[in-house]
Give the backbone structure.
Amino acid sequence: MARNLHVVMLPWSAFGHIIPFFHLSVSLARNGVHVTFVSTPRNIERLPKFPPDVSNSRLDLVKLPLPQLEGNPLPEGAEASVDIPFEKIQYQKVAFDGLKHPLEQLIISESPDWIIIDFVSHWMVEIARGIPIAYFCVFSAASNVFLGPPESLSNDGVKRLRPSSESLTVQPPWVDFPSSLALHGHESAHFYAGFYGDNASGISDACRVAKVLQSCDLVAFRSCMEYEGKYLKLYEKLIHKKVIPVGLLPPDRPEGGTSRSESFQWLDGQEPKSVVFVGFGSECKLTKEQVHEIAHGLELSGLHFLWALRRPIWAAHEDEVLPDGFVERTCSRGIVCMGWVPQMEILAHPSIGASLFHAGWGSVIEILQFGHCLVILPLIIDQPLNARMLVERGLAIEVERRGDGSFTGNEISTALRLAMVSDEGRELRANARDAAKMFGNHELHQQYARKFVEYLKNNVRKKTLD
């Protein structure tokens, strides 16, 4: 008797990874796949609710406790990178690697047809028992092209092709078409140390990616040919493995009418496309200077804004976060929401016209499906590379920075006004509206998901499916 395809999903414990894995899991479940989604207990508890058309029978959530480390270097109860200071994330990787044995027992018990992993789980091939492995990359294809083939990611390849942070400031030699794929000087040193450098886990992130690429059977991207076709094709040539775009997995559009908080009542009173949504998520830890310069820029711009701002660790209380008098001076045209906000519902509101954010790939997808202008201030990991691509395509304005990466309110204000109200920004605004036709095309991205499922079904090694 034939049965449904069964996959095990294992994301890295950062919500910028967990949420795309969850969205892919939902997409697979909607296409008849039985999904076992594995993470730690607190991370599972913080997942979004299942959509009404996805049941527990198709999508199982499995909690595996995060192993405790000797000396307890991680904060109590910390299971995701958002819970952990940046310098201690290396210890989180040590703990995550400790999931190898319980995962092996789970794989023996579940006997899935495919295992879909993130970049951290380089050891999966050792416990997969011949089950095919897919590497689902939550970053853009362009960002991965920038990193290069497996041989450029470890040992002699790094010494030869990426000898220093300066090598990251020019277009990679393997990109054979004009591209702005490169880091700025102030970005490259931090990226080089974090990606190629040693850490407490004993293996660099670059080596993890290399091992995953060498051991996997295919690489899946949260992308589509319409946006990244030339990069997807080039990456397949670079790694000599099957590369499959699974679509952009845009989150379901909110139904509307469910959130009537004070912030939505305020939005209801604003003109269409007149408000800037400002949000830097949970992974980017803004400094006090950065928060104050963003505030200064919003004030200088004269534009209406809604700012979703989490209390930073450097502020003991919420009233210590913003510059003195900022709220009072801007209350007639702006609102600051401390803590979590329903971002998708806010982005869907007709008064929103632009977003000032970090250029994270998931946020790019969320915002562009509504056709909003992008004003970008990239801070970490892949964000600078996404920023270069968006600017190259005429979809974003990047805030100008000094050589050391700092910026002032003047640069924030200039970028915001250029995107929102200036004549020079007309083409940008038109491009954003056009992009929404592709980024927000749910049927297009569902087609990608269906093709991905067909490939998985047709390439099961252990079992035969009807």
The mean pLDDT is 94. The domain at 262-439 is CATH 3.40.50.2000 (Rossmann fold). The two ends are 9 Å apart (CA to CA).
